[in-house]
C-alpha cells in the first residue's frame, strides 16, 4: 500500500530481554515483540535496519549504532523512520532510562540509556517523519522527555519535521510482555477507518490500543509534534485509491471486506481460524494460474467457478487470490513475474453467499456498485456495460 513516489521507510526494532546482571529479571518476550513489530510493518514497505543491535545490545553499542546510522544514512524530509524498544524501563529521579543488556544497578550513565538520548540522533536529523515507540514500564515518562526534546529542536528548525512518540504504559504503570504488540497487531489488522483514509493516525491507533488494554491496568499514550497533516507511519489496509475505483462505493467495499475477513483471511494463509498466526498456504498453483490468466487476458465475458467437494479448499483458493491482490504482498516482491499472480488495480468486490439469500446478494452487490435500488436484471445490465471488471 506504500506510495512508490514517497520516501524511504526504515524500522529500528530493538528488544532487550537478557541481562548480564543475574539480579535483573529477564524478559524472554522482549526480543520476540521486537521481531513481531518488524513483521507487522514489513508489508507496509519498512526496511528493518541495525539488525545486529536488535537483540540484547549493550549501552555503548546501541548509542553508537544509532548515531552512526543516522549520520551515514542521512534520512531526508520525505523519509519515514519508526524506532521501537522493548525491555526494562526505570525512572531515576526525573529521568527515564532504558536498561541495556550490560546494565548494572546504579550505573545509569554507562549501562543504561536516557530515553531522550536514545532518540536524539534521529530527532536531530532531517528525517521528515519519526515515530519513537517505547514498550517498557513507566514508558510515558520516557516519551515525555523525547517529546520535550523534539519540541525544543522544532522551534529552531526550518520547515516542518514531524516527531511522534507512543508509550506502551503511563508514567506510573508497569508494562506486561506482549500486551502492547498484541493490541497493535489487532488494531492494524482490523482498522476502523474507511477506505478513503490512507493512514491510521498515531492518535487513533493509541485510542484503539487502549480499548483493547482497558481491563489490563496498562494504558498507552502518545504525543505528536509539528504534524503537517496525516501521520504516515501506519497504513490503513482497507484504503482504496479513489481514482482507481470510480463508480464504486468505497465505504461498502470496506464493509464487505471487514464482514468477510474472518472467512477468507485465515484460509488465504492456510489457517482455519482468525486467531491463528502464520502463513502456511502451499500449492494450488494451477488454479491460481488459471484465475490470473483469465483476469489478465481479453475478457471473454464468461464467469469462472471454483468448485470441489466440501473441505477441498475452495475458500482457500479464493482467500489466497484476495491476498495476492494486495500490491504489498510478499509474494509480489519474491516472485514478481509468477504466472499465478493476479493483475494489480482490479476492482474487487468480496461476497460470501453461505446462508445468504439472493435478495441479500443483490443488495450488497448493488450497494458496492453505487446502485442501491437496482434489481437483479438491472445489476446484470450494469455489469455488462461496465468498462472494468469487478470479480467477486
Automatic annotation (TrEMBL):
<dbReference type="GO" id="GO:0006508">
    <property type="term" value="P:proteolysis"/>
</dbReference>
<protein>
    <submittedName>
        <fullName>Caspase family protein</fullName>
    </submittedName>
</protein>
<dbReference type="InterPro" id="IPR011600">
    <property type="entry name" value="Pept_C14_caspase"/>
</dbReference>
<dbReference type="InterPro" id="IPR029030">
    <property type="entry name" value="Caspase-like_dom_sf"/>
</dbReference>
<feature type="domain" description="Peptidase C14 caspase">
    <location>
        <begin position="14"/>
        <end position="152"/>
    </location>
</feature>
<dbReference type="Pfam" id="PF00656">
    <property type="entry name" value="Peptidase_C14"/>
</dbReference>
<dbReference type="GO" id="GO:0004197">
    <property type="term" value="F:cysteine-type endopeptidase activity"/>
</dbReference>
Amino acid at each position: 500500500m506504500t506510495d512508490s513516489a514517497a520516501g524511504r521507510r526504515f524500522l529500528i526494532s530493538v528488544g532487550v530481554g537478557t541481562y548480564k546482571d543475574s539480579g535483573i529479571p529477564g524478559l524472554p518476550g522482549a526480543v520476540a515483540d521486537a521481531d513481531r513489530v518488524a513483521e507487522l510493518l514489513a508489508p507496509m514497505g519498512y526496511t528493518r535496519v541495525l539488525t545486529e543491535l536488535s537483540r540484547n545490545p549493550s549501552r555503548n553499542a546501541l548509542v553508537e549504532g544509532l548515531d552512526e546510522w543516522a549520520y551515514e544514512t542521512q534520512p531526508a524530509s520525505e523519509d519515514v523512520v519508526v524506532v521501537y524498544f522493548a525491555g526494562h524501563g526505570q525512572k531515576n529521579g526525573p529521568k527515564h532510562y532504558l536498561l541495556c543488556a550490560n546494565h548494572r544497578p546504579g550505573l545509569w550513565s554507562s549501562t543504561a540509556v536516557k530515553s531522550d538520548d536514545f532518540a536524539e540522533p534521529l530527532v536531530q536529523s532531517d528525517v521528515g517523519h519519526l515515530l519513537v515507540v517505547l514498550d517498557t514500564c513507566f514508558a510515558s515518562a520516557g516519551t515525555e522527555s523525547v517529546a520535550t526534546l523534539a519540541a525544543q529542536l522544532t522551534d529552531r528548525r526550518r520547515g516542518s519535521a514531524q516527531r511522534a512518540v507512543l508509550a506502551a504504559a503511563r508514567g506510573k504503570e508497569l508494562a506486561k510482555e506482549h500486551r502492547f504488540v498484541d493490541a497493535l497487531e489487532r488494531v492494524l489488522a482490523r482498522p476502523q477507518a474507511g477506505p478513503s483514509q490512507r493512514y491510521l493516525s498515531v492518535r487513533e491507533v493509541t485510542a484503539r490500543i487502549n480499548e483493547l488494554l482497558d481491563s489490563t491496568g496498562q494504558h498507552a499514550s502518545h504525543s505528536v509534534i509539528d504534524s503537517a497533516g496525516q501521520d504516515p507511519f501506519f497504513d490503513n489496509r482497507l484504503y482504496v485509491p479513489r481514482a482507481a475505483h470510480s463508480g464504486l462505493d468505497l465505504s461498502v467495499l470496506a464493509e464487505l471486506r471487514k464482514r468477510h475477513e474472518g472467512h477468507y483471511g485465515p484460509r488465504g494463509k492456510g489457517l482455519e481460524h482468525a486467531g491463528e498466526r502464520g502463513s502456511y498456504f502451499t500449492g494450488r498453483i494451477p488454479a491460481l494460474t488459471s484465475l490470473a490468466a483469465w483476469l489478465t487476458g481479453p475478457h471473454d465475458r464468461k464467469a469462472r467457478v471454483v468448485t470441489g467437494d466440501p473441505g477441498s479448499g475452495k475458500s482457500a483458493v479464493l482467500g489466497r487470490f484476495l491476498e495476492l491482490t494486495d500490491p504489498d504482498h510478499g509474494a509480489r516482491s519474491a516472485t514478481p513475474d509468477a504466472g499465478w499472480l493476479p493483475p494489480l488495480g482490479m476492482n474487487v468486490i468480496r461476497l460470501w453467499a453461505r446462508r445468504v439469500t439472493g435478495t441479500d446478494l443483490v443488495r450488497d452487490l448493488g450497494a458496492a456498485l453505487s446502485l442501491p435500488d437496482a434489481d437483479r436484471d438491472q445489476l446484470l445490465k450494469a455489469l455488462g456495460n461496465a468498462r472494468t471488471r469487478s470479480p467477486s
